[in-house]
Amino acid sequence: MAEGVDFPNVEAVSFVGEESSADVSVYPSGDGHVQQVRDCLTDGRPAVVAGPDAQWTVMQACARSGRSYGFTQNGWTPTDRIAAAVPKQGRLDTHKFVGAELPRDLPWAVSEVLDPQLPDFPEPLDLGVPDGSTTIGRSRIRGVNDVGGFDRWDIVRLAVKVEPAVVSVDMQATIYGGATSKSASSYKPDRVRLVSDVPGNITGISPQNTDLEGLAVETTDSAGSDESFTQYTFTPQKNAELRSFAAWTRTQFQTNDTEPPISYDSNGRFRWRDPQLLEDDTWVHHTPGEAVWYPNR
Predict the structure, then answer these.
(1) What is the superkingdom listed in this entry's lineage (predicted)?
(2) CB of 26 within 8 A of CB of 52?
(3) Burial 255-276 (b: 16+ CB within 10 A, else e)
(4) Is the pLDDT of residue 138 over 80?
(5) In 3D, which of 133, 80, 70 has the Cα closest to residue 290?
(6) What are the boundaries of each domain within the chain?
(7) Residue 218 binned pLDDT confidence (cut-offs 50, 70, 90)
């Protein structure tokens, strides 16, 4: 734990004398801590950053790491005060937490970084990735709001041994109802919509319109001269009341430009519903932005 970090409930964690023996290191945000975060990642340990512009600090450390990495959102807001990076198989996986408050939620964020709760997704859906594809990275947005929570992951793979190169974008999202960071909630998970605009010709999408794992899936896509659009909508099947459910998609597109960063615009839209006698109330949380990925070749 670096000096300047306010970590509540310190009796619930164990501190070690040697930083190299720690499971995770936590640093304040800011330019003066970028090198510390970079050194932590180089040593193979997860690094969590807390404070204003936390994602900027993590982005600078990743850029100096010599490993491939990416971010689902290239930007952040003043309230996004916790971010992290985790070394994984020669790359860096990144995390951003939205709706989390400091210092109260820092222990929760650290536990999420060390042990993220990922549902089992069918792999590789019904659309495999090209031979020789390499994983650039995984990037996550974990959020809470007044009615529930959500967890969005983007996983990007690049195949350069085919002509033109193929980028595979997996978007995985889980929506939660019930207890929130503030109180219990009567809102139920109602819909997940995953949208992306990619700079190339789409060569594959999955899943197509179908019923899948108790969910109805609607898929639309369109192609333009410079970019292509995809939209996947997941809703519980009729009369199903779920405390949570997961959505997963794969979109593949061709590109002639594999110089970093590889980017696309995307949004994960999460909707909750509170059944009312006359008219239901809904709550929507968006995660829009430009995703950027930096392959290390």
Answers:
(1) Archaea
(2) no
(3) beeeebebbbbbbbbbbbbeee
(4) yes
(5) 70
(6) 1-116, 121-297
(7) very high
CATH top-level class of 121-297: mainly beta
Torsion angles phi and psi, residue 133, rounded to 5:
-70, 140
User: Two tokens at 25?
Assistant: 């290191």
Q: How distant is the alpha carbon of residue 42 from its chain centre?
A: 22
Cβ atoms 287, 143 nearer than 8 A: yes
DSSP string, 198-265: ESS-EEEEES-SEEETTEEEEEEEEE-SS-EEEEEEEEEPTT---SEEEEEEEEEEEES--SSPEEEE
DSSP state, residue 36? H
Q: Residue 21 has what pLDDT?
A: 75
Could you report the per-residue pLDDT of 76-117, keeping only the tens digit for each? 887 889 999 999 999 999 999 999 999 999 999 999 999 987
